[in-house]
Design brief:
about 280 residues; alpha/beta; Helicase, Ruva Protein, domain 3; Rossmann fold; two-stranded antiparallel sheet; 10 helices
Length: about 280
């Protein structure tokens, strides 16, 4: 029989930035065990069917397919989320958006909107931390809305709801104390679109015009019509777009405009408060 250790030692992922981690995640998934199990019981045998599944998953990873899509899940905040190829994979950088949102409003009842929810990661993370908030998440892709709803049900977060909507399209007449979004913000000719995991992610969730700001412009322009007076708009954007986003917010009449840096030191999110009538 073939052991856990021998399978991991012979796993071949030459183009992965983290080959051992990838192999451990894939094998743990096949075995239905944790990564700690692999380290605790390296001498355990792996049967032929499990070996075949592991080999097939390695082959998918060698093509560049993201591990999260192969596993069908990804951790975000304190949550384990189902993911699929019609949604972006939640990333650690976006947790800064959650942290900032939690600090903007008190833990009292509030209506909060998440634009472009995808897996529901942002809305569900906020709902898990603030039982008094009512989260509404929208996405234009029906499959993404269904996936976010599956995540919501599995996590039993009853203070969140997901709707099919192209940005604000299905929200006429509604107002929120906080609007958050991780919208598409990559320029159409950005070379990174042909590299790494993003090759497998939906371009509609990544690309936003010639400078990557088309969707951010639309959100900033329309958000005041859906904010309570004194409400906040909080946006994730590219590492080099903060100054442009601050200018757009200020030009639309937002005050208290600022940007926040991620763990890598990049200005990753920008925000502003709308106080006008």
């Amino acid at each position: 029989m073939v052991t856990i250790e021998s399978l991991l030692n012979t796993a071949d992922l030459p183009d992965s930035p983290s080959p051992r981690l990838d192999a451990e995640l894939l094998l743990a998934h096949v075995l239905g065990k944790s990564r700690s199990y692999l380290r605790t019981w390296p001498e355990r045998d792996v049967d032929a069917a499990q070996q075949a599944r592991f080999v097939a998953d390695l082959a998918r990873r060698r093509t560049g397919e993201p591990v999260a899509y192969i596993l069908g899940r990804q951790g975000f905040w304190s949550l384990e989320l189902e993911v699929a190829p019609h949604t972006l994979i939640p990333r650690p950088d976006t947790e800064l958006l959650v942290e900032t949102a939690l600090a903007l409003l008190p833990a009292t009842p509030a209506a909060v909107l998440d634009l472009g929810s995808g897996t529901g990661a942002i809305a569900l993370a906020l709902a898990s931390e603030r039982g008094g908030w009512q989260l509404t998440g929208v996405d234009r892709v029906a499959e993404a809305v269904a996936l976010a709803e599956r995540n919501r049900r599995r996590l039993a977060l009853n203070n969140a709801v997901f709707l099919e909507s192209h940005w604000f399209g299905a929200l006429q007449g509604r107002r929120f104390q906080l609007i958050v979004s991780n919208p598409p913000y990559i320029a159409v000719d950005d070379q990174h679109l042909a590299q790494g995991d993003v090759r497998f992610e939906p371009s509609s969730a990544l690309v936003a015009g010639r400078d990557g700001l088309d969707d951010i412009r639309l959100i900033i322009e329309q958000a005041p019509d859906y904010l309570e007076r004194g409400g906040w708009l909080l946006l994730e954007h590219g590492f080099d777009q903060a100054a442009a986003v601050r200018d757009l917010l200020a030009a639309r009449g937002f005050g208290a405009v600022e940007s926040r840096r991620d763990l890598g030191g990049h200005e990753r999110i920008s925000l502003g408060r709308f106080d006008n009538e």
